[in-house]
Amino acid sequence: MRYQSTRGQAPELDFDDVLLTGLARDGGLYLPVSWPQRSVDDWRAMRGLGYAALATQVTAPFVEGSAVESDLAQIMDDAYAPFSHPAIAPMVQLAHNTWLMELFHGPTLAFKDFALQVVGHLFDRVLSARSERLTIVGATSGDTGSAAIAACADRDAIDIIILHPKGRVSEVQRRQMTTVEAGNVHNVAIDGTFDDCQALVKAMFNDQPFRDELHLSAVNSINWARIMSQSVYYVAASLALGGPDRPIAFAVPTGNFGNVFAGYCAAKMGLPIANFLVGSNRNDILTRYFESGAMTVGQVVPTLSPAMDIQVSSNFERLLFDAYDRDATAIKRLMDGLLQSGSYAVEQVPKDKIGSQFIGTRLDDGGTKRVVRETYLDTGHLIDPHTAIGVHAAQSSCLDPSIPRVVMATAHPAKFPDAVEDATGIRPPLPDLMAGLYDRDERMTDLPNDLERVQDFVRAHTRV
Ligand SMILES: *Cc1c(COP(=O)(O)O)cnc(C)c1O
Asked: 449 lies in a domain?
């Protein structure tokens, strides 16, 4: 499979190079040049497969011609082996037409493990096939960093440096990153917001000599391999609820638009999906876009769902590219406008295409606590604040009630124990997997929001 950049000025690459490169050299994001098509019979034939086998089947077309192609089944087996639930992504029923897909049984208790466990193994194989090393640099608002660290710790060909906004990730999230003892793992607490961290990472990638010198690579959700891996659980949910013979709607708590875009990929491959119900917290740039057609950056405000405290949803660019019939010039114009004026407006035809599939909702912190409490009282399930925003998105939509809705439960409630306890009176215990988290020593470095200082740190801590 070949991949093209959304901004049209970077070379087409094959899967292995897209994996290692992350962000395209023109600032765009990579997408496959065409969507592999699956027929109704193809989907039906996947019913009953175990999760790793399903992942192999769904992702195979994307790695065609890659060094990992013949190893894919083994990679998927290895990637999902550390998950603590035999179903990997079990579903529980919340109401007559609403299900919760639990995406939090991986090593760091959030859905990001689904992609990053795979990406860690993919990096390993591709780098060893090439006898190369690289430096992974990433920004996290909480869950990406710990999942990336869990996936890369002690991998010989990789050094990993993760920036997080100081004091703005939960203690569980911070400890999941800072207590990992591996010598190739380096945590940096930046005096700033998540968007500041993300801007620092983007600036490092845009510094071409620096990027080449250190063999920089990304694991944030701009990496295509993550999106590809996440599309699998949309297929799993659909097949479990009668797909492909009936359409399913998905409610997805959204930040960088990576998770929900993975669902869109499944739809582009031919899986019948009725709608995507996109849930935001008070950082509602996406909801405002769905209402107005204009993407306008505002201020980030901290909320009870910190992994969604984002203003610019990077992966939305991929959706725009498709909605503009892959007109890279148009996308470059929009993104230049965003950079210059903090805003862009989507034209009518692409706007209508997007609007026919995606529905935006928002929920503030008070509403989030209410949904956590009501869900507990109505169903007995404790849900985390991010998941609550998904539940609200499912409840508030006026879809045909016969269409099943699947809410993506993106984090384990024990990752956000204070908010859950505040809402329900019950403190969710950490699963056995995490025992001892509060006893281990932390390692991290504080740095100001200063590109040069961060670059010096990265240079000093890689073995490239
Ligand atoms: C990362 C994250 C999100 C947002 O996912 P995107 O792919 O960035 O839209 C939602 N919930 C949790 C718990 C997360 O960790």
From this structure: no
143 close to ligand 1 (CB < 6 Angstrom): yes
* Ligand 1 proximity of 254 Cβ (cutoff 6 Å): yes
Residue predicted with more confidence, 311 or 180: 180
**CB 256 near ligand 1, within 6 Å:** yes
Is residue 413 within 6 Å of ligand 1 at its C-beta?
A: no
* Distance in angstroms (rounded) separating the CA atoms of residues 372 and 344: 35
Cβ of 224 closer than 6 Å to ligand 1, yes or no, is no
Q: Which two tokens stand for residue 138?
A: 């990433």
State mean pLDDT over 66-94: 96
**Residue 120 forms part of a structural domain:** no
**What distance in Å separates the CA atoms of residue 303 and residue 289, rounded to the nearest whole number?**
20
In a domain, 343, yes or no: yes
How much is the mean pLDDT over the chain? 94
- The 10s digit of each residue's pLDDT in 328-375 is 999 999 999 998 999 999 999 999 999 999 999 999 999 999 999 999
Ligand 1 pocket residue status of 253, Cβ below 6 Å:
yes
Backbone φ and ψ of 111, nearest 5°: -65, -20
104 CA closest ligand 1 atom index = 13
Residue 238's domain comprises 91-109+225-424
Output the pLDDT for position 157. Answer: 86
- 202 belongs to the catalytic site: no
- Per-residue pLDDT, 285: 94
With contact defined as beta carbons under 8 Å apart, do 49 and 37 qualify?
no
Q: Residue 163 and residue 137: Cα distance in Å, rounded?
A: 8
Which atom in ligand 1 lies closest to the alpha carbon of residue 256?
8
Residue 356 lies in a domain: yes
Bridge-partner residues for 276, per DSSP? 250, 358
**In angstroms, what is the C-alpha Rg of the chain?**
20
Pick the atom of ligand 1 nearest to 386's CA: 11
Cβ(395)–Cβ(312) under 8 Å? no
Compute the distance between CA of residue 62 and CA of residue 237 in angstroms, rounded to an integer. 21
Distance 198 CA to ligand 1 centre (A): 15
CATH code of the domain in which 265 resides? 3.40.50.1100
What is the Å distance from ligand 1's center to 410 Cα? 7
140, pLDDT greater than 90: no
Nearest residue by C-alpha to atom 1 in ligand 1: 307
Domain count, the chain: 1
Kindly give the residue spans of alpha helices, DSSP state H, lying in 167-281: 171-178, 194-206, 208-213, 224-240, 258-268
